[in-house]
Design brief:
CATH architecture of the largest domain: Up-down Bundle
Strand order of the largest sheet: 4-3-1-2-5
Structural class: alpha+beta
Order of helices and strands: HHEHEEEHHHHHHHHHE
Pfam family, one: GST_N_4
InterPro entries: Glutathione-S-Trfase_C_sf, Glutathione_S-Trfase, Mito_Protein_Transport_Metaxin, Thioredoxin-like_fold, Thioredoxin-like_sf
Protein name: Glutathione S-transferase, C-terminal domain containing protein, putative
Largest sheet: 5 strands, mixed
Radius of gyration: 25 Å
Organism: Trypanosoma equiperdum
Shape: globular
GO molecular function, one term: transferase activity
Strand content: 5-15%
Length: 315
C-alpha cells in the first residue's frame, strides 16, 4: 500500500469511524466463519480417511447413496455396481454415505479393496472382472459384446437422461414428493435437492444439444428408445441369452428404478406400464441378483453380502 492510499484510509476512518469499525468486524467475522468451515471440512476428511484405513482387508467395500424403500438404490450407477457384485458372486460390505468428495472421482459409487480405491461404475466393473477373474461374459460372441455395449450406452445416456427429464424438468413435483415421503426430507430441503439435480441435468442436456429440442420431439425420441429396449428383451430371458451378463446390470438398474418411479404415473411413460417383457425381465433379474430384496430395501446400515446364501444383516 502506497503512502497516498494509507492517508486516504486514515482520513476515511476519521470521518466515518463507526462504518469502518462495522466493516472491519464483518470482515473478521467472515474470515472466522470461513476458517471454521475449513477446519470442519478438514476434520471430516481426516476422520473419513481414518475410517477407510481401518476397514477390513480381503473384501470389497462398496460406498453408495442411501437405499430407498423400493430396492437397492434409486441412483442408477450405485444400483448397477451392486447388481454386478451380486451377479458375479463377489463378497462385499456395503456402506451408505452422503458425501461423495471422499470418492476418487468425487462421485458415488466407489469401491475400496485392499487399500485400492476405484471410482466410476464402468471402471469399477472392469477392475472387479480382472481382479476376481469374473466369467459372466466369457461365452459372449463379438457380436453380443457389441450389442451389449450399444445397449449399455443407450441406457446410461438417452434413457437415463430421458427419465431424469421427466422427473426433474417436466414433473419435478414427482421427485420432490418421493424425497419428502420416502427419504423424510422437509419440503424446502426436497425442493433444493431437486433444483440442484435439475440444474446439473440441464447443463448435461445443453452440452449434448438435447435441451434445445422441442419437448414433444424429445419425448418422441425417448419413448422410441424405450420401445427399442422392449423389443430387445423379448428375444431371451436376459439381454444377451439365457443367463445374465455384466451388461444386464445397468439395464436392470434403470428398469427397476424407472418402473418404481412411474407407479401411479403410468401415463408419463406408458410403455413401462404395459410391457410384459419389462415386467418379466425385472422379476427374473430380481430373483437372480436380489432374492433378499424385501429385507434390504430401506436398510441403511452397513451389511455384508455373502454369495449363494444372500446372508446379510443390518448391524
Amino acid at each position: 500500500m502506497n503512502e497516498g492510499s494509507s492517508r486516504a484510509l486514515q482520513g476515511m476512518y476519521r470521518e466515518h469511524p463507526l462504518c469502518c469499525a462495522a466493516f472491519a468486524a464483518a470482515a473478521c467475522g467472515y474470515a472466522m466463519y470461513r476458517c471454521t468451515k475449513l477446519l470442519q471440512a478438514l476434520r471430516k476428511r481426516v476422520m473419513t480417511q481414518v475410517m477407510l484405513n481401518s476397514l477390513e482387508h480381503g473384501i470389497v467395500h462398496l460406498f453408495i447413496h442411501p437405499r430407498w424403500p423400493h430396492g437397492p438404490n434409486c441412483f442408477l450407477h450405485c444400483f448397477k455396481v451392486e447388481t454386478f457384485l451380486r451377479l458375479a458372486k463377489i463378497s462385499y460390505i456395503v456402506h451408505f454415505i452422503d458425501d461423495p468428495t471422499v470418492s476418487p472421482n468425487g462421485k458415488l459409487p466407489f469401491i475400496l479393496y485392499d487399500g485400492v480405491a476405484v471410482g466410476d461404475s464402468e471402471v469399477i466393473i472392469h477392475y472387479l472382472m480382472n481382479e476376481f477373474d469374473v466369467d459372466l461374459d466369457n461365452q459372449l460372441s463379438a457380436e453380443s459384446h457389441a450389442v451389449g455395449r450399444v445397449v449399455t450406452r443407450m441406457v446410461e445416456t438417452s434413457l437415463n437422461y430421458g427419465l431424469q427429464r421427466v422427473v426433474l424438468i417436466d414433473h419435478p413435483e414427482l421427485l420432490e414428493g418421493v424425497l419428502e415421503e420416502e427419504f423424510t426430507r422437509d419440503e424446502e430441503s426436497a425442493h433444493k435437492k431437486v433444483e440442484g439435480m435439475r440444474r446439473t441435468l440441464v447443463e448435461v442436456l445443453e452440452t449434448t444439444g438435447d435441451y434445445r429440442l422441442p419437448p414433444l420431439e424429445y419425448t418422441r425420441q425417448f419413448l422410441q428408445e424405450v420401445k427399442c429396449l422392449d423389443v430387445l428383451l423379448q428375444k431371451s430371458a436376459f439381454l444377451l441369452g439365457d443367463t445374465p451378463t455384466s451388461y444386464d446390470a445397468v439395464v436392470y438398474a434403470w428398469l427397476h428404478v424407472a418402473k418404481t418411479l412411474m407407479e401411479g404415473h403410468e401415463e408419463l411413460i406408458p410403455a413401462l406400464a404395459v410391457s410384459e417383457p419389462f415386467a418379466s425381465y425385472v422379476a427374473r433379474m430380481t430373483s437372480a441378483a436380489f432374492p433378499d430384496m424385501k429385507s434390504i430395501s430401506g436398510c441403511n446400515q452397513s451389511h455384508r453380502f455373502t454369495p449363494h446364501t444372500c446372508r446379510q444383516g443390518c448391524s
